[in-house]
Amino acid sequence: MMIDHANRLLQSRFSLDGNVLCIGGIPVTEIAKQYGTPIFVYDQSIIEANIARLRDVYSDRFDLHYSIKANPNAAILKCFLDHGCGLEIASGGELHQALHAGCSPKRLIFAGPGKTIQELKAAVQAGVGELHLESIDEAVSLDAIASSVGKKIDVSLRINPVDGGGGAMRMGGQSSPFGIDEECLDEVVERVLSLQNLHLEGLHLFMGTQILSADVLLDQYQRGLQIARRMAEKINRPLGSIDFGGGLGIATFSKEAPLDLDHLARGMTDLIANIDADPLLSTAKLIIEPGRFLVGEAGVYLSSVTRMKQSRGKTYAVIDGGMHHHLAASGNLGQTIKRNYPSVVANRVGCQAVQTTEVVGPLCTPLDTLARKAELPAMQQGDLFAVFQSGAYARTSSPHGFLSHDSPAEVLVHRGESRLIRRRGAAADFLRDQAPASAEETV
Fold first, then answer.
1. Where in the sequence of the chain do the CATH 3.20.20.10 domains occur?
2. Under the phi-then-psi rule, with left for phi > 0, alpha for psi from -120 to 50, and beta for the rest, what region is 436?
3. How would DSSP label each residue in 148-180?
């Protein structure tokens, strides 16, 4: 079944003022006039609705931590903190961003396979609530740091199962830089237990991303419980926490159906009952750490048409944004074959599609294409092109420095009002950020 996700989002997430797209009730023409383009615009009400929905699905038995790699803007982090969520971080930079946003260190989970000694020291100094270890080497390093400051650190082990991976990008069930192989679990647990400055608190699993099947998620959770029981038996005491990871996907392409949350909720009821009936697991804090699912559909990338042109039978709309701001929408962030993100001509929504158009950016590469063979209304200079599903892995996963164009601004809409949450970065900023090449240049 083919799904028109642009229309789905228009009906469920956004609204129209005549033929003009509205975000949080504000016409994009007004947003573009006030802040300029290209720009990322986020609707906070969508984020809040997603938080509430996941809490319905997972119940109050689960602690919700937002994975800030999806979108680390401070205003968005503050939204999650205001709604009682913790944060999941994976670098020293994200640690700084989380603390700057006002997150209590105890509400932080620090994961990731490449933590440096400096990052581990910073996490210990800050008092991060739980560190997730992905190798014996990391455990030994952390133990030495903890010893040097006289602290005992709560840790969980990220385990890479022998099976159970899934989603658009598998991160478990195969050879991987992520986590500790399940077949090494017993010896690793014994080694960690021997380290005097670490307290083995729990288990962390993250087996895949962009998962759109409730059954795949439930199978992974059941697999996680098997490993959790094995770990609890090995340490001969109940686990303190079980982090089931994230991976909840959002349907973006025409052959993808949205994740069935009702089916997931029914399965979670049975899963939680099994956990609560097990003495070794019933007192554990249960954690999920989604990112994309919470913010992806809240964001729209908005750009302006600068030129229309014809070339050898094709129509091109050249816009002022492109892959340097939204690499994922260009198809250059993991796609083998370019597929279009849901998009509309934002000031001509509902107008008849009369031509097949290539929507391209200003960069000097044919890879800078945000929509290929898109059926769109006739466009002209000044029209607004909107890319949906742009709230996650968009701005921060893109090469802003390419051709030294300005970096895009970000705006948050909430309760009918908009505010700038990241200024537009001028091309001159790149020069200011560079170290001088010689002493003479410091004059």
1. 111-290
2. beta
3. HHT--EEEEEEEE-SS---SSEE-SSSS-SSSE
Stretch 201-221: mean pLDDT: 92
What CATH architecture is 5-42+297-432?
Beta Barrel (2.40)
CA–CA dist 124, 111 (Å, integer) = 13
> What does DSSP assign to residue 3?
-
pLDDT of residue 443: 35
Quote the CA–CA distance of 297 and 209 in Å, as a whole number.
16
The pLDDT confidence band at residue 1, using thresholds 50, 70 and 90, is confident
Are the C-beta atoms of 26 and 414 separated by less than 8 Å? no
- Domain 111-290 sits in CATH 1.20.58.340: no
- Considering only the C-alpha atoms of the chain, give the largest distance between any 2 of them, rounded to a whole number of Å: 72
- Write out the DSSP string of 209-225: ESB--HHHHHHHHHHHH
pTM above 0.85, yes or no: yes
Taking Cα atoms as reference points, which of 24, 74, 79, 82 lies closest to residue 47? 79
Residue that the structure tokens 């994975």 belong to: 67
